[in-house]
Design goal:
The structure is a single chain. Helix content is about 75%, strand content about 0%. The chain has about 120 residues and is mainly α.
Length: about 120
Amino acid sequence: MNLLNSILILVAAFLAVFAEAAFSFPHHLLGAQIDLLPALMIYAALNLDIFTVSLLAVLGGLWFDSLSANPFGITILPLYAIGFPIWWKRDLLLRELPFAQVILGATASAIVPALTVCFC
């Protein structure tokens, strides 16, 4: 079951990155592009193992960079910088509460682009 979850998370990351690049409707409606990859990283860090978190950071970062104007590979470290501490301290977090998940996802969605800009 863990292998299936890992594969499904990676497929969801690929589809999320592709949807962000292919559909510009949220960008025109909101004035900003919604980044789904940090929220998916939080879900993986709270529910799966470190191998899946690392694989999601590497593959998701490479997929995101290949379809954006970012330098290739720059998004890997910010995604991993968000995923690893959450995975490491997930027993201390209230991971069953939807409010905690929303706060973690919103924080990650703000921190990952800021770290990406700092690394450029």
